[in-house]
Task: inverse folding
C-alpha cells in the first residue's frame, strides 16, 4: 500500500485511500510476525494520503484513524438485484443455517463449527451448510467427522457467484461470526434475498444491521452464544419473517448501483475541485 502512495506523491497527485477493512487486525489474529510492520505502514499511509474512505463511522475507532479531517464515509458496494432477490419466503424454507465465506481464523468459522453440536442438543431438525474454502477447510472436515456431524452438516467447498443467490434462498439464517470485517458483500446479498443475517458487530456491520429490525447482532462469537441465538431465532418464525422483509427493503433502498454511483461522482468531483 505504501509504495504506490509514495509514487503518487512524487507525481503530485491527489490520493484517495479506500480501506475495505482492518488488515492489521487480520495479521494480528493470524499471529503473523509482520503485524507490527503492517501497523506502521498503515499509520504512515494515513499521514501521506489526502482523503481516507471508510465504510462506516464504527471503523474510525477500529482502524485507529487520528486524521479525522481526511475521513469520508462511503462505500463502493451495490447489489445486482436482477440476481439477488427473494425466491422463497422464510416460511417455505427448511431449518437450514448457513455460512458463506473464507475458511480462515479471522472469519470465526471455527466458532460456528463448535456451536453446531450445542444447537443440535436443542434442535435436532437443523441442518448446517458451510460454503467456501481456505486454510481451515481440512481442519473443519476432520472436526465434523470426529464428532459424527456429517449427517447434519454439508461442506460444499468453493461455490461460484452464480450459485450464491439460490443457496441463500435456501437458508433460514446466515451466520457471519467474524472477528473483523469491512462491509461484507455476502451480508448485503443475503438481505436482498430476504435471508436474515446473524453477525458479530464488527467493521461496518453494526451501522447496517439493527438488531431484531433488519437482522441480528451477536454479543460475541463464542460458540455458546452463537448456538443460543440460533436456537432462539429458529423458534421465532414471525420475527424471522418480519426481519426478512425489512432487510430486503433496506438493501433495495440503500445499495442500488445508481445510489452508489451518485455518491462516488460527488466524492470525485469534490476531490477534483480541491486540486484547483
Result:
Amino acid at each position: 500500500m505504501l509504495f504506490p502512495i509514495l509514487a503518487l506523491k512524487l507525481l503530485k497527485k491527489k490520493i484517495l485511500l479506500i480501506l475495505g477493512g482492518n488488515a492489521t487486525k487480520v495479521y494480528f489474529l493470524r499471529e503473523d510476525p509482520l503485524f507490527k510492520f503492517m501497523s506502521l505502514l498503515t499509520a504512515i499511509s494515513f499521514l501521506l494520503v489526502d482523503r481516507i474512505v471508510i465504510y462506516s463511522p464504527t471503523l474510525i475507532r477500529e482502524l485507529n484513524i487520528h486524521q479525522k479531517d481526511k475521513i469520508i464515509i462511503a462505500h463502493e458496494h451495490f447489489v445486482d438485484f436482477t440476481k439477488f432477490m427473494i425466491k422463497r419466503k422464510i416460511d417455505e424454507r427448511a431449518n437450514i443455517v448457513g455460512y458463506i465465506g473464507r475458511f480462515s481464523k479471522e472469519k470465526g468459522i471455527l466458532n460456528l463449527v463448535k456451536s453446531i453440536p450445542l444447537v443440535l442438543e436443542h434442535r435436532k431438525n437443523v441442518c448446517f451448510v458451510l460454503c467456501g474454502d481456505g486454510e481451515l477447510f481440512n481442519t473443519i472436515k476432520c472436526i465434523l467427522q470426529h464428532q459424527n456431524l456429517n449427517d447434519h452438516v454439508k461442506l460444499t467447498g468453493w461455490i461460484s457467484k452464480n450459485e450464491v443467490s439460490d443457496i441463500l434462498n435456501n437458508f433460514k439464517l446466515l451466520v457471519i461470526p467474524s472477528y473483523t470485517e469491512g462491509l461484507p458483500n455476502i451480508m448485503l446479498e443475503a438481505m436482498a434475498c430476504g435471508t436474515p443475517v446473524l453477525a458479530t458487530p464488527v467493521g461496518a456491520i453494526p451501522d447496517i444491521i439493527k438488531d431484531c429490525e433488519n437482522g441480528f447482532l451477536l454479543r460475541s462469537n463464542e460458540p455458546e452464544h452463537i448456538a443460543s441465538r440460533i436456537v432462539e431465532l429458529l423458534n421465532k418464525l414471525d420475527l424471522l419473517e418480519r426481519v426478512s422483509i425489512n432487510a430486503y427493503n433496506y438493501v433495495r433502498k440503500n445499495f442500488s448501483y445508481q445510489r452508489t454511483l451518485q455518491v462516488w461522482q460527488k466524492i470525485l468531483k469534490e476531490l477534483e475541485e480541491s486540486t484547483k
About this structure: The mean pLDDT is 92. The first strand starts at residue 16 and ends at 18.
